[in-house]
What does this fold into?
Amino acid sequence: MSVLRLENVSRWYGNVVAVNGVSMDIGPGVTGLLGPNGAGKSTIIHMMGGFLPPSSGTVELDGAPLWQNPEIYRHVGLVPERETAYDFLTGKQFIVAMAKLHKLADPGAAARRAISQVEMEYAQDRTIGNYSKGMKQRIKMASALVHDPPVLLLDEPFNGMDPRQRIQLMDLIRRMAAEGRTILFSSHILEEVERLASHIEVIVAGRHAASGDFRAIRRLMTDRPHIFLVRSTDDRKLAAAIIADGSASSVQLTEKGLQIEATDFQRFTWFLPQVARDAKVRLWEVSPADESLESVFSYLVAR
Amino acid sequence: MNSTIAMITFRAMLGRKRALLLFVLPFIMLVLAIGLKVTGYADLDVSSNVLHRFGLSTLLPLLALIAGTGVIGPEIDDGQVMYVLTKPIPRQVIIFTKLVVAIVLIVLFAVVPTLLAGLIMSGTTAQVTPALTVGVLLGGIAYAAVFVALGVISRNAVTIGLIYVLVWEILLGNFAPGAKSASIQQWSLSVADKLTEASQIKSTVDLPIAVLLLVVITAAGTALATVRLRSLSVASAE
It folds into this structure.
């Protein structure tokens, strides 16, 4: 059982702060590192993988520092985001070479095991340069698994994968986690994290915005005030009726229509058509104004 | 020395289009040597001149630049170096292996062609050929260490290396005697000068100083490359 620990970690480049005072413990099971693009997820994964020193704070695996400590790679497998592997090698040659670099007792057997784990036997004799994106992702995964590490770090593993490849990789990650490994993967897509991770860490603008069980965070996200834009035959009349009910905390008359801040998402969506009917107002348009992931994230940060 | 890293590096070097460059320069020198021999121009003067001006001063630094930066630079640029760095391998072993591969390539494409060209033109007369071959070999080792370090340190290693070779060694060396003495080329020439009695090969640097400087620059390049690889952060590679 391995634990990755970040303690009060900051990382800045010149005077740009990429990661700001983040503390977290990553234990066995699947943890999703969620955040919009440019939030600092890669910076965190790179620090966890020993590829970047924290500007302040400590990053440790079971008490040992990650930075400038090559011995740590006996326990860590890293799947980088970049697609490049050694394109001129075949899948099998690549994995055998990785096994040899780890100085494993039987590189051939270790390579066979890793390749079968990612179900790539059928393509192992083709050169990596001719692989599809999904195949490359899987062979990269095999390279990280060849020494059977207790910790796996995956940087945006689902990027550019088609749905079928995505499901296969999710199954594989679940299997790895069931074996007791500590797995961390980063993603900017909520649904991916929701389907795979039991535990999530949310990073927004370099800050640790939320941490914990996925459902609790999902609730935070749906319970937040939602903003809708509504156009109707009589905006003033509708505004009065909505204010009278109390499921919205504010209604604003704008040139584009009514901007309504709903406090209770469920109740508001159910109640709006009724109010409109009772007030004899015809609704032309109801659209959520802030459904982007970024607005969800910024809500979490401001909270 | 790690044989797996060496194997991957050799395949990467010789599989790339850039590998053609490795063949072109030595090929030109050999064609030149054969041409001079066949037409009867290959006396000791011409022979020493070709080996010195073409072999030591042009072929060697350019080849060493391609080989030295090539064994590590592109791998860092493309991010493949991650697959080597995420292994429990001491960083000095990685650098040492890269250096050995670069030196082997330099031997194959600069040292051996210099030897062959010399033998074709003037045999072993006045020891010019063996002397310059040894000079090219020692200079090659020093260049390799410098260019491997440059490949680790900078994403513009080839450009910087080219500027060093063209501006410092070739251009300034012709005008400013001081700059001339502070170059790997002159130090290797000093060794060659000592090994031959031919008056055509003349260096401005004394042998003990030249040898000392060659050793120092080789050791410094290797050490610097190791230190920089140890703290290579991916952020700088992106």
Remarks:
- The interface with chain A takes residues 2, 4-5, 7-8, 11-12, 15, 78-80, 82-91, 230-235 of chain B (CB under 8 Å).
- The first helix of chain B runs from residue 3 to 15.
- The two ends of chain B are 28 Å apart (CA to CA).
